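Saturday, quiet lab. Running sequence design on the structure tokens for the scaffold JK sent over.
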């Protein structure tokens, strides 16, 4: 049968019951709009939370883990070689935490084509002297320029400039929580005592804020040279090498390879943040589930409306079949009706979803814990719009399929005889 004729009949049936058609289309529109808005907002929130942790986490971390020696002296003794030896209070066999041959290892890692960059890190436990009170803190010695390039360090320095930690001698960037406890302003000098009992004066050049208050009460940053000086160590002393890869998914394999090649402990980002990643995946799954549920509910609404339309249009269906329309032609008429509702309702829903997302994206979101976040986060991934549009057509097609098949089986003789 002529396609234009089928479309014309479908349009006439839609306009004849325009109120029901409008209700069905509004149901699809609302479902798609909420699907896009919910998914964009939830994934934007996930991206923000991931960024707080993952942006500051290396894809692969190389270090020496403090662990007991596998071969204890008693096991090496010939007298106890064939015995089961039970040892208590086992002590670590590693006396130093620094990475051996750190220079050649760092050079080899940087030369790897899979690596975006690598930077050394040094951690020092210190006490901040506040009158007669000593406050525990941790100073992370970093290569400031590489830390900025690989881990967006400057984004977390809320006051001052990160590069000042390198340019200003004997300087420190305090965690915002610790700065509040010490009542230390930019330009002030803070006194610290190392675990070896050495006292130093450091100038405050900035505040660091991670978004996690307990961390900001402890963590501070300085140049790696300043930190080596605090510990009385040479300029090749480092406890960590932080590696950033081009492809995050390669981290487990690269970590395993580096551990074997360099005879060092290596931890990949997936292992280090497995619980956090699981939480993000669960939130995303909930978003998809709620959005798809809205679409399914809208599909049932279209199913009911088309069923009612068939009952009310039995005469029209009988006339169509009596004048030469086949069952498949009638089937196509009602499928065109369903897909028309899904297409136009879905299109308006996508536009409204984008509009709602933009509104949310401009709502102020001010919190002391996240000073770099000014508005609610929203993710505008085109994939969400593609999924929403596809589901609107799929659900409306399925909602129209069964009523359309029912209409195609109507016997015109029975309908006319009944009249």
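Result came back. Writing it out in full:
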């Amino acid at each position: 049968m002529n396609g234009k004729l089928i479309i014309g009949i479908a349009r006439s049936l839609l306009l004849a019951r325009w109120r029901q058609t409008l209700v069905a289309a509004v149901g699809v529109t609302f479902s798609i709009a909420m699907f896009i808005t919910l998914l964009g907002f939830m994934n934007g929130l996930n991206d923000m939370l991931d960024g707080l942790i993952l942006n500051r986490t290396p894809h692969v971390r190389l270090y020496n883990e403090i662990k007991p020696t596998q071969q204890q002296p008693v096991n090496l003794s010939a007298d106890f070689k064939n015995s089961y030896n039970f040892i208590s209070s086992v002590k670590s066999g590693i006396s130093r935490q620094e990475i051996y041959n750190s220079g050649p290892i760092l050079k080899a890692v940087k030369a790897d084509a899979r690596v975006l960059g690598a930077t050394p890190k040094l951690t020092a436990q210190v006490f901040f002297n506040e009158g007669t009170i000593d406050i525990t803190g941790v100073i992370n010695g970093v290569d400031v320029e590489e830390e900025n390039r690989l881990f967006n360090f400057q984004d977390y320095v809320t006051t001052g400039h990160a590069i000042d930690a390198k340019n200003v001698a004997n300087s420190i960037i305090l965690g915002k929580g610790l700065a509040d406890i010490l009542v230390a302003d930019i330009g002030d000098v803070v006194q610290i005592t190392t675990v070896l009992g050495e006292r130093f004066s450091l100038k405050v050049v900035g505040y660091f804020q991670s978004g996690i208050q307990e961390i900001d009460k402890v963590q501070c940053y300085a140049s790696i040279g300043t930190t080596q000086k605090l510990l009385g160590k040479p300029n090749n002393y480092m406890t960590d090498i932080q590696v950033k890869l081009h492809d995050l998914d390669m981290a487990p394999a690269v970590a395993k390879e580096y551990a074997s090649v360099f005879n060092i402990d290596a931890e990949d980002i997936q292992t280090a943040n497995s619980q956090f990643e699981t939480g993000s995946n669960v939130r995303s799954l909930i978003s998809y589930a709620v959005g798809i549920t809205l679409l399914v509910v809208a599909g049932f609404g279209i199913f009911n409306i088309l069923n009612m339309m068939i009952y009310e249009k039995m005469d029209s269906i009988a006339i169509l079949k009596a004048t030469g329309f086949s069952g498949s032609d009638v089937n196509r008429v009602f499928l065109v009706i369903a897909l028309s509702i899904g297409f136009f309702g879905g299109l308006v829903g996508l536009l409204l979803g984008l509009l709602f997302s933009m509104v949310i994206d401009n709502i102020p979101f001010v919190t002391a814990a996240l000073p770099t976040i000014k508005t609610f986060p929203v993710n505008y991934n085109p994939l969400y719009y593609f999924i929403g549009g596809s589901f609107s057509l799929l659900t409306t097609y399925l909602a129209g399929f069964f009523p359309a098949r029912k209409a195609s089986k109507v016997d015109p003789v029975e309908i006319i005889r009944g009249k």
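Notes for JK: Residues 274-312 form the longest helix (39 residues). The chain has two domains: 3-54+276-418, 60-65+94-272. Ask whether to fix the surface positions before the next round.
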